[in-house]
Amino acid sequence: MSGNVEFPMNGGDGANSYSKNSRYQVEAINVVKEMIQEAIAKNLDKPLNGNTIQKSLAEMPEFQLFFNDHASNDFNTLFITLPPDRQYFAAGVPGSFYGRLFPKSSIHLMYSSFALQWLSKVPEELLDNGSLAWNKGKIHYTIASKEITDVYAAQFAKDMDTFFNARADEIIVGGLMILIMPGFADGIQYSQDPSCPFFYAFNQSLLDMVKLGMINEDEVDSFNLPLYATSPKEMTKLVERNGCFSIERMEVSNTRPQNDGPPIVPAILTHYRVGLEGIFTKHFGSKIVDELFERTLNKS
After folding, report:
1. Please, which domain of life does this record's source organism belong to (predicted)?
2. Residue 160 lies in a domain
3. Residue 111 φ/ψ, nearest 5 degrees
4. 170 occurs within a structural domain
């Protein structure tokens, strides 16, 4: 599995749809909402052309909101959920954010939530059986060797550089970019990533299915999840090296719903299915997907 990644989240509003299984993403937004409001007030709510804006007296400015995603994602369900009495203009912009999406100096505020963990492509070294980074029999870096981890990290660094360069062209001088993305605190090992047990369970389920003749060994060897979680130290280094932006604030937040008890494995696995089913289906075919998730549930 190589080339540019474009696998949509599960669309519609069914039991396994993204729209019905975005609780953790919503909680993350709620956790940082006040932080975002403070950043906007500090950086964007400034005098215009030297004149103070009295919001109670002056006409409110008009806002245009652009929603970006790959063309294969479900824009229709998104648009249906927009409030009919919204006080902004809305439009969809299909395409990868690892390239230009808007005219130069046209965006005041750019906001990305739970998207930048997706790499632009699977690193080619993972598929080369002559490379030390050949990820034979494994599907992710959290359960693999340091050589594999380094290749993932290098791809993430290239992708972020591309992303920053594109946004630097599009955002106005003095504009603001807000990024919410999965990550972990400095000093945490990759093997301690909360996703690691689930990726391991997926991996073992696939290997079991190879033994049963349901899929081929080569199919597992050529499959790698294009996902990467970063840390504040790593992101700081990448931002500073790129030089297009400065960091106003960066924090690691606990985005787990506060009223939750112990993690419920079936619910968490459904959360993974929403995002990964398209990838597994594209590579292994749709016939094995239910079996894969059932086996993974039993191992988790």
Report:
1. Eukaryota
2. yes
3. -130, 125
4. yes
Residue 85 lies in a domain: yes
Residue type, 260: D
- Residue 68 main-chain phi, psi, to 5 deg: -110, 140
Q: What is residue 16's DSSP assignment?
A: T
Could you tell me which residue, 214 or 39, shows the higher pLDDT? 214
Query: What residue type is 206 in one-letter code?
Result: L
Give this prediction's pTM.
0.88
Angle between helix 265-284 and helix 289-299 axes, rounded to 10 deg: 140
12 located within any domain: no
State the CATH number of the domain containing residue 166. 3.40.50.150
Could you list the residue range(s) of the whole structural domain that residue 66 is in? 23-44+62-299
Q: Which two tokens stand for residue 22?
A: 């975005």
* pLDDT per position as a tens digit, 19-40: 777 777 888 788 888 888 888 8
Residue showing tokens 């290749």: 151
242: how many CB neighbours lie within 10 A of its CB?
A: 16
